[in-house]
Amino acid sequence: MADRENDFQFGFDTLALHGGQTPDPVTNARAVPIYMTSSYVFDSTDHAASLFKMQGEGYVYSRNANPTNAVLEERLAKLEGGVGAFAVASGQAAISIAMLTLAKAGDELIATNALYGGTYHLFSETFQGFGVKVHFVNGTDLDEIERHINDKTKAIFTETIGNPNLEIADLKKLSDIAHRNGLPLVVDSTFTTPALLKLLEFGANIVIHSTTKFIGGHGTSIGGAIIDGGNFPWDNGSFPDFTRKKSILDNHSFVELSREKAFISKARFELGHDLGATLSPFNSWLFIQGLESLSVRVKQHVQNAKEVAAHLASHPAIEWVNYPSLPNDPQYRLAEEYVPGGAGAIFTFGIKGGLESAKTFINSLKLLSHLANVGDAKTLIIHPASTTHARLSPDQQLEAGITPELIRLSVGLEDVKDIVADIEQSLQISSPLYVQSTK
Ligand SMILES: *Cc1c(COP(=O)(O)O)cnc(C)c1O
């Protein structure tokens, strides 16, 4: 893959613009070209045969790999400090492929219980049907995690900042428990991105992104990525499928053939190939545009979020605000430890007047968009209990910290005064503080 040998010396913002790419050798095009091709002409039958055994340089078929996707993958891997990445059709596909590369029927996984609603359902229902048991644990209760580890356990999964209760993962402790037990730590960093949190520095082994969110940044496309830290000993005895010689690999194992890239090669060559959750090169190109400005966007997202959160925290019509970067938030210390640049731009709050006021408030907004997404350049708002987390039972909702009055805000890049003004006009209509008993 086109790459400069000294890329590793570049800083984050330079890598976000140049990582994984040299200008197109045929045309000298400066921007990354979109290679809209399903397949690639082989040099010879020997060349074709070597590629089918995962040996030799070149592309076969865009379900497995594509040159535009390769730039995105290489760039993400460099931004995280990992050894390789696999870009796929969605964040959900990334989680599915990563976790099923680790666990098969009869195996078990441990996941912290403050999760994206789609992930919760994937683990509690779909994986259950596949025979993979997922134990949901309180991410702050290390004894509970330790108690659930047994000889069938294959990984610990967490989100950097849990959705939507914003629980910050204590990554050093989680990676410590995982590694003491010979397990990889898999972390969904969608809410943080490498611009705010370098997970591998805290011991994570595999990083997941829904690139749909801040990495794309403009709410245009669905995608996901798996990044391999290259820092886990897959030959430790617990992952025989990584060390087994396979006929499709010309009687080599993934560890023999790909060494520190064994995980990401296996994910691509097996489940990537078999399940076919392929990322379109066009979407990949959009994510590359997003990465170019990730760092400046995220700084502004955080700045705006801090201002809007502070405004709401002192507002008489607001019951509570949960944003770990507010100085008196109970998680402030953890936020300073893991995300000193700010705990993202997504936070929750409760409006006085409970469920009914919350609904009227959302229905009365004019600028903020009521929709199911986060990490768009535009400010987004939603009521999780009735939407994103509606598949959870009332008990599961409470366990995940989702109360009926909870509203989730993903603060965008508009002028803060305009975001605040829209919230203000809507509170005037919805809050019992202003609305006298006219109904
Ligand atoms: C959106 C999201 C996902 C799922 O990603 P898709 O791209 O929608 O499939 C997973 N985890 C988190 C934290 C998310 O916000």
From TrEMBL:
SUPFAM superfamilies: PLP-dependent transferases
Cofactor: pyridoxal 5'-phosphate
EC number(s) on file: 2.5.1.49
Keyword Transferase part of the UniProt annotation: yes
UniProt keyword terms in alphabetical order: Pyridoxal phosphate, Transferase
Example of a GO MF term: O-acetylhomoserine aminocarboxypropyltransferase activity
UniProt xrefs under InterPro entries: Cys/Met-Metab_PyrdxlP-dep_enz (IPR000277), OAc-hSer/O-AcSer_sulfhydrylase (IPR006235), PyrdxlP-dep_Trfase (IPR015424), PyrdxlP-dep_Trfase_major (IPR015421), PyrdxlP-dep_Trfase_small (IPR015422)
One Pfam family in the UniProt entry: Cys_Met_Meta_PP
Keyword set includes Transferase: yes
CDD domains: CGS_like (cd00614)
Coiled coil: none
Protein family per UniProt: Belongs to the trans-sulfuration enzymes family.
Name listed for the protein in its UniProt record: O-acetylhomoserine (Thiol)-lyase
